[in-house]
Specification:
With 607 residues, this protein is mainly β. The chain contains five helices and 43 strands. The chain is globular and about 60 Å long. It is a single-pass type I membrane protein.
Length: 607
């Protein structure tokens, strides 16, 4: 389900923020989220059990939600406002006060402390937050005197593009390696510049909210009084959790910064389930989703191959999307026979295994340029939002296209520990986003200082795969031959795209690194996000009541009218739903939010 947040007031008098989060599956008309007799809504926010509005509706006092003036608050946790709750991710996104160094009279050092979650069942989520520093200098996140993560910036002729990309000039961002109960932030070496005295601000922020909000306004958080932060919620045996259909909960481990592991109870979220697995009667199973064209296989080994990709003749949209299945492994024969690791219809990405390129064979110690894959005339691009640039070594690594530096980061190698490399925030390892979608790139590595002869490795990598691997201590070994990378796939008029139920596809305009634009088609599933295939005319999953949530279309057609679905666009161009309109019967018009929020490298919709 796509949550459309209510307006959140910040300190700037005219700044209101609407945040979109893709957190849970879309709810049908009769979806069950709360306990019997309890309300599951407070304003526009869904409140699923184990949370509840009133004591008898929640699993314990920490999960009680107060609903005041259609705004939900966690009464036991500093009365923080609730922005959204995800049953699947086991997170609650709250609005937390923003902390900055602006009131601090001391120029070169400042330490600020977060809200302490020690007594609560909540932790700061490592998977759904990131650490951001907007300013000039160095920002470190600390826990009990230890550095958890951090990043540094320069302020050399900072442009709007620099702040927007946030990869080291005036702004930097990095992941957090562990779940935390509290933290402090240390700002040092601040270079006071500009009319505001160089006010810097470092904060933990919900990653999805931050990235999506900055698409419309890169300065939207600059003067904000509150920041959206995602908290992991945990359950214990004392909570007496019984999952839907009387299934037993699993016991996943939560890795804390001090090296200890904490158990939590989790009811497994079935991808095809539309209800709440934390209620004994909260599950429902849906029809089998269709992903491939009729008569075509949608599986190669453990990998789902949805159309427009396809295995076999007449199963793909064009030759670039043909997949060969050899020994239960899928490959793209038209694209250097790269192995396919996964295809995502919502993100328009295909994750492939690409050869890793290093400078280890290079005899020149202080400078080396290595080439990446050139996607040339293919319909693929290196995805901006689903990859990041990583350098493991000592020195500076830059990603370059046509002699222009796209992004870069630097490392030091003074007393490098395994924790330093694992956290990857500047000692022995650094990481940064890429500013645009790319067709090709090269990597330049300079000033290597390694004891093993200057061997370093810089690479583009799928962000989710990299972070998950490192969090499991399965971080990419320096001798690994292949790296997972996400490619954005595009479709054009010649592909003759017809979306499910005959819906017209959306045209997205992609922002390419050389300043040119590329149009592509996108289909979206109006009915059930994440299930079925909107690129097949019969691929949308129709839940009972979904196509016509209140029966208005049926009544319209019974009176001889025609019911049509039109896109509803948000102010920044994102599609967040459809409007059901009855033609031929002026009494009936229904607007229903049933949409998808998605991030590519686009900046506008073509009209």
């Amino acid at each position: 389900m796509i949550f459309l947040f209510p307006n959140i007031m910040f300190s700037h008098p005219h700044l209101h923020l609407l945040l979109f989060l893709s957190l849970t599956a879309k709810s049908p008309a009769l979806a069950k989220y709360a306990k019997p007799g309890c309300s599951d809504k407070c304003g526009n926010v869904t409140i699923p059990f184990p949370f509840g509005i009133a004591a008898e509706c929640s699993v314990n006092q920490w999960y009680i939600v107060d609903c005041n003036n259609s705004t939900p608050y966690l009464s036991a946790l500093n009365h923080l406002e609730v922005l959204a709750i995800s049953v699947e991710n086991q997170t609650v996104t709250v609005s937390m006060p923003r902390i900055s160094d602006c009131p601090n009279p001391v120029l070169n050092s400042n330490q600020i402390t977060s809200i302490d979650l020690s007594r609560s069942p909540f932790l700061y989520s490592k998977s759904h937050n990131k650490f951001v520093f907007e300013g000039c200098g160095i920002a470190s996140m600390m826990y009990n005197g230890n550095v958890v993560t951090g990043c540094s910036t320069a302020c050399l002729n900072v442009t709007l593009s620099d702040r927007n990309s946030c990869f080291g000039n005036g702004c930097c961002q990095t992941a957090i390696p562990h779940y935390l109960k509290w933290y402090s932030i240390n700002l040092t070496g601040m270079e006071r510049q500009g009319e505001d005295g160089g006010c810097g601000s470092a904060f933990l922020v919900d990653e999805t909210s931050y990235d999506q909000a900055r698409l419309s306004d890169p300065f939207i958080f600059k003067n904000a009084s509150f920041i959206p932060v995602s908290l992991l919620w945990t359950l214990t045996d004392l909570d007496q959790v019984t999952c839907c259909d009387k299934m037993h909960p699993t016991r996943p481990k939560v890795d804390m910064f001090n090296g200890t592991l904490m158990d939590t109870l989790k009811c497994n979220y079935i991808q095809s389930s539309e209800y709440n697995p934390y209620l004994i009667d909260g599950c429902t199973q849906n029809e089998i989703a269709k992903y491939a064209k009729t008569g075509c296989s949608d599986k190669c080994g453990n990998v789902t191959i949805p159309f427009p990709f396809g295995i076999g003749a007449d199963c793909f949209i064009n030759q670039w999307y043909r997949v060969d299945c050899n020994s239960s492994k899928p490959y793209l024969p038209a694209l250097n026979h790269l192995e396919v690791l996964g295809v995502n219809l919502e993100n328009l990405t295909v994750t492939v295994s690409t050869p890793r390129i290093t400078d280890c064979q290079n005899q020149v110690r202080h400078s080396n340029e290595i080439m990446g894959i050139n996607l040339g005339s293919s319909p693929f691009l290196f995805s901006k939002f689903h990859n990041k640039f990583v350098f493991e070594g000592c020195g500076t690594a830059a990603m370059i296209d046509n002699e222009r530096v796209l992004t870069a980061c630097s490392t030091a190698c003074s007393g490098v520990t395994l924790r330093d490399r694992n956290s990857c925030f500047g000692i022995g390892c650094c990481q940064t986003p890429i500013p645009q979608c790319l067709k090709s790139y090269s990597i330049n590595i300079t000033r290597l200082e390694e004891e093993d002869g200057g061997c370093g490795s810089a690479f583009l990598v799928d962000e989710t795969s990299y972070d998950q691997g490192r969090s499991s201590n399965l971080f990419i070994d320096r001798n690994t031959s292949f790296i997972p990378i996400s490619l954005l796939w595009t479709l054009t008029d010649t592909d003759q795209v017809i979306c499910c139920d005959g819906i017209t596809p959306i045209t997205l305009s992609l922002d390419i690194v050389n300043g040119t634009n590329l149009d592509t088609w996108k289909c979206y599933n109006t009915y059930s996000e994440g299930t079925g295939n909107p690129y097949l005319i019969d691929g949308c999953k129709h839940e009972s009541g979904d196509e016509d949530p209140t029966g208005v279309c049926k009544r319209c057609e019974d009176r001889g009218g025609y019911c049509n679905r039109d896109d509803i666009l948000y102010v920044d161009g994102l599609v967040f739903g459809q409007n059901f309109t009855c033609y031929g019967d002026e009494r009936t018009s229904l607007g229903v939010i049933l949409g998808n929020v998605f991030s590519l490298c686009f900046y506008d919709y073509a009209h």
